[in-house]
Amino acid sequence: MSARKRKSTRRGKLTSREAMHAKRAKPPAIDPCPPGPAGGQYKPLSEADCQAIFDTALLILDELGMGEAPEVLVKQAVSSGARVNASGRLCFPPEMVQDAVASACKTFTFYGRDPKHDFEVGGDKVYFGTGGAAVQTLDLDSSEYRPSTLQDLYDFARLTDTLSNVSWFTRCCVATDLPDNFELDTNTAYALLKGTTKPVGTSFFIDEYVDPIVDMFDTALGGKGRFAQRPFCKAHISPVISPLRYGEDAVLVALACMRRGMPLNNIIAAQSGATSPATLAGMLAATLAETLAALLMVDVFERGYPMIFSNWPFTIDLRTGSFAGSGGEISLLNAAAAQLSNWLGLPSGVAASMSDAKAVDAQMGLEKALSSLATGLAGSNMIYESSGMMASLLGASFEAFLIDDEMLSHVYRILRGIEVNEDTLGFNAIADTVKGEGHFLGHTHTMEAMQRDHYYPKLSDRIDPRSWQQEGKTDMWQRAKVQAKDILRQHHPQYIDPTIDKQIRQRYKIML
């Protein structure tokens, strides 16, 4: 046969090796690492531990209460069974707290503007997403930290739009180039609209900014009241100032959001040894009391309102007083916080993946994987800060977003667990192999399991040392940098209709 003829035949029919590579190149029919697996396998607390911590939280709220409660909350809470003690602190009797827990919203749908991104919050399902308010961005070109900008926020949003394991996008950085607070809040909301159709989250400087921003969301959805029908944005609020005080501005923001149907992510972010006890058990008792106080703030105004019970116990390095976003203690604390929330049957939120590393290096990988796996296995419904955050939450990194997305595939794979049935036990495949070729390569059982049971990373390096050297000796940071630049160069979604965009720009001072 001539060389020309052989070449023609090769074009017409793939060799078995080429067919195998072609099959592997296709997206798997079954995602081996789907978001939303069941958690709860890891329980750092016993049943007795949970009860003791809860009982102490009830005692705290009953005998110590909450300071600096705004008058609007005091009036409503007292009419619902609370009391003001001799020190002027708002106290909640145990039966009132237990009643609020029993009547609280247990599950709700967190909507995306595109329904394919909807997911249910609550139960035992685990999802990872973003958080944070970094004031610096690790520049893609210079690899130096610089002040974060509105363009960075938009770029992070559209990068997240392409990442399958990041289920929602909360603004991960502050646009420091917008000094006016109203312009900062409105432009942040616009960047979220423009960059992704996933569920999103934002914050509000004061309650007066809530209505204009929800009006913007209504406009984007096509008319007045549309946002309340499918609220795709949640409010990030910290209504409690540790230890055991309400923050009036945040309480008023929460009430404004409730009037417009925006789900609340009520975050308690105490720091061990500073604004909370240094002992882990004491901190969990105090922060549980504070998170219950946030729930009571909601409950006295509207029972069953959608709220994420976000108990985020943070740690500090007691030698220096600096925030320590990673390590065994904070991973353990947030896992325990998730367990406590789930034990109460409430939609749970915690924080993880808050690396203290400044570079995309081994420290970053160690710290992020440790906390993400611990909180995922503990069964938190929503795990914040899990993508892109660096430098103890002071910085955000495009490369880290991509690396974290790959890391989360591994975490999801672990949470998915091992399916044990007649097919996966593989007796027939074992028998075929023992009686036949003596290996499982190429066996139908292997080919079927290849995509269903195994995850193949794209950024991680699995080639041999010689090939790695010949291909440039790149590390994960370098490979992620190239991919991040490619995505940002190519992915320019048009999620806002030009006519609607014009209407928004006529009303708001949009800087993008």
Task: Summarize the entry for a quick read.
The protein is an alpha/beta fold and 512 residues long. 46% of the residues lie in helices and 12% in strands.
Outline the fold blueprint.
Blueprint: H1 3-12, H2 16-25, H3 47-64, H4 71-79, E1 83-84, E2 90-91, H5 94-103, E3 108-110, E4 119-121, E5 127-128, E6 136-138, E7 145-147, H6 150-160, E8 169-170, H7 181-195, E9 200-202, H8 210-221, H9 226-229, E10 233-237, E11 240-241, E12 245-246, H10 248-259, E13 264-268, H11 280-299, E14 307-311, E15 315-317, E16 322-324, H12 328-343, E17 348-351, H13 362-378, E18 382-384, E19 389-390, E20 395-397, H14 398-416, H15 422-425, H16 427-435, H17 444-452, H18 465-470, H19 476-490, H20 498-507
Parallel strand pairs: 5-18, 6-20, 8-9, 9-10, 10-13, 13-14, 14-17, 17-18
Antiparallel strand pairs: 1-2, 3-4, 6-7, 11-12, 15-16, 19-20
Helix pairs in contact: 3-11, 5-11, 6-7, 7-8, 12-13, 13-14, 14-19
Structural notes for this entry:
The protein has helices spanning 3-12, 16-25, 47-64, 71-79, 94-103, 150-160, 181-195, 210-221, 226-229, 248-259, 280-299, 328-343, 362-378, 398-416, 422-425, 427-435, 444-452, 465-470, 476-490, 498-507, and strands at 83-84, 90-91, 108-110, 119-121, 127-128, 136-138, 145-147, 169-170, 200-202, 233-237, 240-241, 245-246, 264-268, 307-311, 315-317, 322-324, 348-351, 382-384, 389-390, 395-397. The protein has 512 residues and is of the alpha/beta class. The strands form six sheets. The protein has an eight-stranded parallel sheet. Helix 5 packs across helix 11.
